[in-house]
Amino acid sequence: MNSKRTGRLVGAALVIGVTAIVAFALIRQNVVAPEVVIDDAATDLPEPGPSTIAALPDSGGAVQDIVKLSSEAVWTRMDPETGELRYRMEWDQLEPAGGGVFEISAPRAWVFQGSRIVEISAERGRLIWPSRDREPESGRLEGDVVIEGRMLGAPESDPPLGRLETDSLNFNTTFGEMRTEAPVVISAPGLDVSGTGFTLRFNAEASRPLTYFRIDQGGSVVYDQAAMEADERLASDESSTSDGEGRDETPDDGADAIALYSARFEDDLSLDVGDQRMIGGAAELWVRLVDGRLAKGSIASFDATVEPASGATRQRSGSGEPADAASAPVELTWTGPMEIRALPAAPNELERDDAFIRVLAPTGGVVELIDEPSATSVNCVNLEYGATRRDLAMYGVGPLGVTITAPSLGEVVSGRFDIDLTSGVGEFSTPGIVQGRNEDDEPDGRELRWRDRLSFAIDTTNGPVGSPAALIPDWALFEGGIDARDGAGASVRGETLRAEIAGARSDTPSLERLILSTNAEARSADGGRVTSDILEVDFETPEGESQPRPVLATARGNVEASQGRQLLHAGEAELSLETGDDGRTRPSSLEARSGVETRIEIEPDEPGVGERPGPPSIIDASGDRLSVTDGFSRFHLLGEPALLTLARGDERSEVTGNSISGSDQDGGRGLIVFGPGTATHSFARPTPGRFGRVHVEWQGSMQFDDGTGEAEAIGAAVATAEFGDAERHIARGERIAISLQENRFGERELASATVESDGETNVEVELRRFVDSGAGAARELESMANLRGPQIDLDALTGVLEVPGAGLLLVEDRRDEGASGLETRGTMLLEWDGSMTLERGSGRGQIRERARMTHRARGTGVLTELECETLDVGFDWPEGSSAQEQLTLRTVRARDAVFVRHGTMELLCDSLTYDSASGIATAIASPGNTISVFNTEDARSIVAEAIEIDLLNGGWAAVRRPSASLVPN
Fold first, then answer.
1. Where are the beta strands (DSSP E) in 630-756?
2. Residue 593: CA atoms inside 13 Å, Cβ hemisphere, count?
3. Dihedrals φ, ψ of 79, to 5°?
4. How far is Cα 140 from Cα 123, in angstroms, rounded to an integer?
5. What secondary structure letter does DSSP report for 397?
6. Are 24 and 100 in contact (CB under 8 A)?
């Protein structure tokens, strides 16, 4: 039972009640004109008879005049002022019974009222008729008593304007009363009233000729609007309904006769309109009449259309009801008494309306409204309807609330329901609940509760609620302690919930938006949760479908969202949704703004047999704005700066930048930073041979592909690696690219690295080692290596370091004497014009094209300079050793045009070898050549095939054949 049908049903009850009042109010003025006014509470009069005959006038003669009529069989009375006929009465026989009492047979009387005439007939009667100058004072009619109203001059074959039928009727014109204990039927075009026992009191007051009307026991009223409107004889009368929006507030000129009436129908009330029914215990009705009838607009019509702004009348189709539903006959029945009373003053019920009805529930029961085709029902304890303004109200008491039930759809329960059927605005003004039902009409777990009220509005563009226009809601507002559940684990909570309807001006309305405000919370069936100040969900209904689908969820103010091990904080967030073919709704994209913070925890893969499970990965992100698109496979994080971190066990990676984008597609993850930024990877507990912290800065961009392990930083890139506080490695270049791969332990390790220049400035790689200098003092630099060139390439898997262009290598060894006993302590500078290669596996290195080496020994300050075309070096690079030890020179071999200066000694040879373990350098000449040695201190010189030089003590000697041990491997 929707509010449209409820409005029509209640309106129908009101119309038939008011029509009955108007009909009864006109009975007196159409039949007699009493000269005595009696009070509403006048006592019942005794039956006419010898003991109740009024005293005859002392003037005499009147009775004799009436007696004469017994032979004439006709009596008339003229209007003394106009001379027009007012009354005419005929009979078959009139017999005096003494004391002014007469027995009359086959009486028939006519009362002339302008263009109308009222005819009264019966089989017999008993009259108190003191004088022929006026109508009988009282009496009783018996046997087929009929009172009919007709148009003057109309053919006898025309149906009467109104008709009253009963077996007996007592009347008293002196006291203004008619009554009977017999069944009575009152009929008129479109109206039939029946019951048992009948009392009618009237007076001469023009404003309210009817003072009291009662049907003693049981009765019915059948109202057929179509039949009433079809009677052309009523066309000149004012309609009791209006095509407007309600009561006409414009006062009429002159003094109108106002009459106020109340009516009450008691016990087992039942109202049927087509296939709708209303059942109650009793009904009360109040009405205001002007000049004996309802003023225009007193009962606002449900069939009115409204002119829209364009001026063209719009009429909706597809209302879902038969075209003649509004004109279906209405039947009202009851088992107890029915009373109509005139009121001395307007009650509260008529303060805003000219017609008002209240339906009451039986003791311990409810008022029930039923729509039989749909089995929809409405239950309440009291129902009220103001017909002029179309205000409908329903009340509940205690556990018997207002209940609206639609089988297989749902049920609404609240304490009070109000609606203005003209504007379409209404509310449930008390706590309530909406519960869903499945196809078997059983609760399906869906429910919505509110603590304060539910307000709503119905679109009334084409007519008020209850008209044939389609019933389409505009919006609904739930207030106070909102708690809604879908039966599958999803729920929403908040203080207010507003539902907005799309297409409220069309025939296909659908849910457009839900707005949850103040402490808003939404939970999904799979454990997702969103809290915010305001939460909105937008819906769309696909073409050809009836159910709306959520497409966008927006949260504003203190947003916190979680899903499993995923968490989001933001000032505002928008979540785009899509519904798959399986009917399930999934997120497709996310937009978060203002103080964004996110966390995602990823569980590791299942470990193999005998393996221990790895630690989970925790991803944190923060920034000013976060966009997640492509089914949550891509993200874009903006900030000043934005921050992205990944923690797993004792490892932590961190990326900062103003614009960070990432993807996770086809099992691979990638990361791009546009503009300046930093990246840091660290271990909480660094182990020997593993960096404790790696930090990269750049000014251009950074890109990392987690699937391939490829990463690069572009634009004044600087990479720093630290072994705790003992070692620090720094790389500088226009571009730094690295490649990572997993080792057999499942850990990422460096596979290769490249540092490139911008073509103008060499790149630089620097290694520093620090030692403790004492308690509380800063650590001191122990050794340093600085490598420069246009590009530096490292293949970490093969241990090959290469500089494919001119560059230099500076090595600083500040270890104290005795720490190693190696002459390499001090400062050594290697320079070249061609290229440089170091191989970790073989421990070999080569510097090509004008290689130069300069070495200053630590402590002695002795300077050694070497220049050649090719310089081969040997070094130790043990597995698991530190980076500084990897660069420790063991042997040197210079080839092609070798020039050496050591202290005061200068040497020219074809090749030279040096063994750092013995400190001996051996110069060798090619076959047919000799070595030239010159001492600048004493001007001595020597020419030989080979010379051994002790670089530790400065001694040297010419030899013919060098020891094989001096030749590098």
1. 634-648, 651-665, 668-683, 693-698, 701-705, 710-723, 727-742, 748-756
2. 7
3. -75, 120
4. 11
5. B
6. no
Both tokens assigned to 884:
């500084």
Does the N-terminal peptide bond of residue 443 adopt cis geometry, omega within 30 degrees of 0?
A: no
Amino acid at 59: S
Count how many Cα atoms sit within 13 Å of the Cα of residue 649 in the half-sphere of its side chain: 10
Question: CA angle, corner 351, sides to 347 and 354, nearest 5?
Answer: 95
Strands of 524-632, DSSP E: 529-540, 549-563, 566-579, 585-602, 617-629
CA distance 532 to 553: 12
For residue 689, give the nearest of 880, 884, 888 by alpha carbon.
880
SS3 of 65, please? helix
3-state secondary structure of 105: strand
pTM: 0.70
Tokens of 395: 């009340």
% helix, strand, coil for the chain, step of 5: 5, 55, 35
Contact 388, 246 (CB under 8 A): yes
Q: Return d(Cα 173, Cα 48) in angstroms, integer.
A: 12
Closest CA to 750 of 681, 699, 807, 833: 681
Tell me the backbone φ, ψ of residue 3, rounded to 5 degrees.
-65, -25
Q: Would you state the structure tokens that stand for residue 633, as one six-digit string?
A: 């496979």
For residue 718, what are the β-bridge partners? 697, 732
Q: What are phi and psi of 330, to 5 degrees?
A: -115, 130
- Reading the block at residue 80, the tokens are 């003394």
Whether the predicted pLDDT of 967 surpasses 70: no
Beta-carbon contacts of 346 under 8 Å, excluding residues fewer than 6 positions away, are 260, 288
SS3 call for 229 = helix
Phi/psi of residue 63, each to 5°?
Answer: -65, -40
What does each C-alpha distance from 28 to 22, 143, 159, 337 come to in angstroms?
Answer: 11, 21, 21, 21
Handedness of CA 502, 503, 505, 508 (dihedral sign): negative
Query: What H or E segment, with its residue span, contains residue 834?
Result: none
* Helix/strand/coil for 655: strand
For 382-419, write each residue's pLDDT tens digit.
Answer: 999 888 888 889 998 877 889 888 887 788 899 999 98
Q: Are 694 and 683 in contact (CB under 8 A)?
A: no
Report residue 102 as tokens: 């007469």
What is the secondary structure of 249-293 as a DSSP string?
Answer: -SPPSS---EEEEEEEEEEEEEEEETTEEEEEEEEEEEEEEETTB
Rounded Cα–Cα distance for residues 922 and 909 (Å): 10
C-alpha span between 73 and 75 (Å, rounded): 7
User: Strand pairing partners for 289?
Assistant: 259
Token pair for residue 608?
A: 């193999």
CA 601 to centroid of chain Cα atoms: 28
Query: How many residues does the structure list for the chain?
Result: 969
Q: Could you say which DSSP state residue 70 is in? A: H
CA distance 202 to 176: 5
87, two tokens: 């009354």
Residue 164's CB: how many other CB atoms inside 10 A?
Answer: 27
Phi and psi angles of residue 652, each rounded to the nearest 5 degrees, phi first: -145, 125
The DSSP code for 690 is: S
Please name the residue that has the structure tokens 């090595």. 811
Residue in the structure block whose two tokens are 């004497």: 817
- Please name which of 472, 481, 569, 566 lies closest in space to residue 518, comparing C-alpha atoms: 481
Q: Are 503 and 474 in contact (CB under 8 A)?
A: no
State the residue for tokens 């003590």. 953
Residue 418's closest CA among 376, 444, 460, 389? 389
Q: Which segment, 48-52, 492-496, 647-651, 680-684, is predicted with the most confidence on average?
A: 492-496
In the chain, the largest separation of any two C-alpha atoms, in whole Å, equals: 190
- 174: tokens are 């002196």
The pair of three-digit structure tokens given for residue 51, joined into one six-digit string:
């003991």
223-253 confidence digits (pLDDT tens): 877 777 676 555 444 444 444 444 444 444 4
